[in-house]
Amino acid sequence: MEKSKQVETSPNNMTCQNLPSLLSSFVDTFIDFSVSGGLFLLPPNSNLGPKLNTDASPNKVEPILSTPLQTIYPAPTRLVAVGDLHGDLSKSKQALCLAGLINAEDRWCGGSTTVVQVGDILDRGGDELKIMYLFEKLKREAAEDGGTIITMNGNHEIMNIDGDFRYAAPEGLEEFKDWGIWLCVGNDMKRLCDGFGGLIEDPFDGIPHEFSNVKPELFQGIRARLAALKPEGPIAKRFLSRNQTVVVVGDSVFAHGGLLPNHVEYGLEKVNEHVRDWILGVKEKVAGELVKGSNSIVWTRKYSHELAKDCDCSTLEHVLNTIPGVKRMIMGHTIQEGGINGACSNRAIRIDVGMSKGCGNGLAEVLEINENSQIKILTSNPLYQKNSENLRANPQDGHEPFILPKHGQKQVEVQA
User: Fold this and answer.
1) Helices and strands of the chain, counted as H and E runs
2) What pairing do the DSSP bridges indicate for beta strands 114-117 and 78-82?
3) pTM of the model
4) pLDDT value of residue 110
5) What CA–CA distance (Å, rounded) separates 384 from 77?
6) Per-residue CA distances from 311 to 8, 148, 318, 397 (Å)
7) What average pLDDT does the structure give for the chain?
């Protein structure tokens, strides 16, 4: 009898009944490898914080809901803020290299640094998924080294979850089309054996096969993008549900567009919780004041205007005074053509420099804050590299600029 058992379970007699469940994870890892541009992602490490079902095909949201998103972080010895990336993997890596966060092999080398990326990874470029996968890999590597990477929701993440693809580049649609193909291949592999990967849900279920006023060659890319990014879609659930919409790190508060008094009154933790629940499909709607409309957290430009007289500095002061221990707000969303700069006596720091080829093609810059709360601009612009120790003041703010010529920086506002 014992000999018979050994024959049944030997590798040469492997069947659907005794196929190890580990192979299901292998299929998911293979899909990740194919979609991410060659990143090999092992199952998530337990020291990353909440266990968030980061496998390619999770169907349950309970583990994600069991632990709230962290909203407040202690002051680190080094904090780096990265602006809008808009689907440009090359510029994303340039920004991370500039801050000494990744090496030539794209591995984390930033030690205990805390990094905040302020949103808008999506749209305008063709490497959106690759950037999300890169940040997931780096989150794991950073956690093993005592570092932290925080990714945030911008208005373009919200638009895509809502099915608004007006600013998706053709290359971006093609990237999602490839994702959809690989996902279907993986699901077909799992279906070869009953129960191989558990219940397999089809993310394309209910997605239209045709769209009015859309070129036929774009249909499959749009279908895949809808399937991936809709509330409870695989990519929305895996990546975007883990993004914060507002976060406090030390004495800095981050928001993609900015915070207004009603957002603080709503409760910063509740903001993150309610936006996450909408992305997960647990809530059908999310309050418009949080993520929709010109006065929402991801859309407002009240602190991003070129001229100081047009920035609502009194409202900013009120907001900062109502968040304990916070003395500055850091935001992206509105391109600062002259580079990272400060307004409202440097209480508003604007870090979107339009790095992406699809949205300005600006030179890479990041913001650094040390343990003494001193700010430095790290720039790839050779005109300013030697003097980048100080924050550029907005000359219209009543301060002489430290770095820029007398005419100062030009603020650029682009659609969405």
Assistant:
1) 13, 13
2) parallel
3) 0.86
4) 98
5) 25
6) 74, 32, 13, 9
7) 85
